[in-house]
Amino acid sequence: MYPIHFASASDRQTEESIDAKRMEHYLRFSNELVPWYHLAAIDQFERNIRQVRSDLPKPDGPISIIIPPHYWSGLLNPNPTDTEPDAIAFFGGNALDGNGDGIADSNELEDILLTMSSHLSYYGPAEEDFKAALWHYYKREQTVNQIMTIAKLYKHFETIELDDHVFPVPKGYHYSYRGTWGSSRGWGGRRIHEGTDIFAGYGVPVVATSYGVIEVMGWNQFGGWRIGIRDNHNTYHYFAHLAYFDKGIKEGDIVKPGTLLGYVGSSGYGKEGTSGKFPPHLHYGVYKYNGKTEWAFDPYPALMNWERQK
User: Fold this and answer.
1) What is the Cα–Cα distance from 87 to 80, expressed in whole angstroms?
2) What is the dihedral sign for C-alpha 153, 156, 160, 164?
3) Measured between alpha carbons, how far is 92 from 75 in angstroms, rounded to an integer?
4) Measured between alpha carbons, how far is 230 from 44 in angstroms, rounded to an integer?
5) How far is it, in rounded angstroms, from Cα 98 to Cα 249?
6) Is 64 helix (H, G, I), strand (E, B) or coil?
7) How far, in Å, CA of 200 to CA of 279, rounded?
8) Where are the extended beta strands (E) located within 195-248?
9) Model pLDDT for residues 247-274, shown as the tens digit of each residue
10) Residues ≥6 apart with Cβ < 8 Å to 276
11) What InterPro entries does this protein's entry cite (predicted)?
């Protein structure tokens, strides 16, 4: 299970200082072919997966990008840790010297960023160009889509500081909930409950809990009228059993904490339009992508924290 991070006041000050340093690096290595938010999105994605995978080192500096040895030094290079630019180029490697010290060191953030910037500039600055560059580097569609989402958010909000969250039911409305993670479900075969049920009356507003992009929206036989939102931390937020959506929102829209999504209902457990098979409530679930797989984790601790904040 991977919990959502709760930052204290001192943690926030530290994170803000680190974010400022990150922005300095992104801006330094951006150009007319490589917007800063493309570099920032890749770096954020790699930071996200390093935080949740045991096979990767934990991030310990402002830049988290790790460039694979075969891409860095060249697939046929007998020295996978080669730092000599001429030798690297001879064997088809891509590493560059970004800080002017005469070597291409995979541990130096300037060398890493210049190498990544060079890769992106080969394709171009447009969205489709960026998508092609990501595909040829990562070769995984879900990874490409996640990084594209992060870049879209950074471009829209013009910042990388998008870590605020709110409770999915606004202040002033009655509701109740408890930890329902792992309980059995009674419809659709044997399965466990991957989320938290927040019980409220029909028509109570449901809002976005984070910054993100609406990835999916519509009917699901289990979740009824549901919305799925992908944020900048590789987390997918799932809002199910809605009565109806807020007018005007659609797939691809960018949202922020508190954006109205729809209203509590009891839809689901059947063909499109089925409703009333259970008391009205919001099913809220969260899923984490680690660059290889995606899994659900318990949102209850995060919900309690966001509830206290409001």
Assistant:
1) 11
2) negative
3) 7
4) 14
5) 43
6) coil
7) 9
8) 196-199, 205-207, 212-220, 224-230, 235-245
9) 999 999 999 999 999 999 999 999 999 9
10) 266
11) Cell_wall_metabolism_enzyme, Dup_hybrid_motif, Lysozyme-like_dom_sf, M23ase_b-sheet_dom
Tokens representing 13 are 């000050």
User: Among candidates 234, 287, 297, which has minimal Cα distance to 47?
Assistant: 234
What amino acid occupies position 138?
A: Y
Burial of 34 (0-12, 13-18, 19+ CB in 10 A): buried
Give me the percent of the chain exceeding a pLDDT of 90.
87
Summarised one tens digit per residue, pLDDT across range 168-199 is: 999 999 999 998 887 655 544 455 678 999 99
With beta carbons less than 8 A apart as the criterion, state whether 40 and 22 touch: yes
The overall pTM is greater than 0.85: yes
- Name the residue type at position 84: E
Compute the distance between CA of residue 174 and CA of residue 200 in angstroms, rounded to an integer. 6
- The burial class, CB within 10 Å (0-12 / 13-18 / 19+), for 222 is middle
What is the per-residue pLDDT across 64-78, written as a single tens digit (0 to 9) for each?
999 999 999 999 999
Q: Report CA 62 to chain centroid distance, whole Å.
A: 18
Report how far residue 33's alpha carbon sits from residue 54's, in angstroms, rounded to the nearest whole number.
34
Q: How many residues does the chain have?
A: 310
Report the alpha-carbon distance of residue 204 to residue 207 in Å, rounded. 10
Q: Are 33 and 133 in contact (CB under 8 A)?
A: no
**Which are the contacts of 62, defined by CB distance < 8 A and separation ≥ 6?**
18, 21, 22, 25, 109
Question: Per the structure block, which two tokens stand in for 297?
Answer: 């984790």
Kindly tell me the sign of the dihedral angle through the C-alpha atoms of 51, 229, 153, 123: positive
Structure tokens at 46: 């790699």
Please give the backbone phi and psi of residue 218, each rounded to the nearest 5 degrees, phi first. 145, -155
Place of tokens 């060249």: 74
Tokens found for residue 90:
């001879």
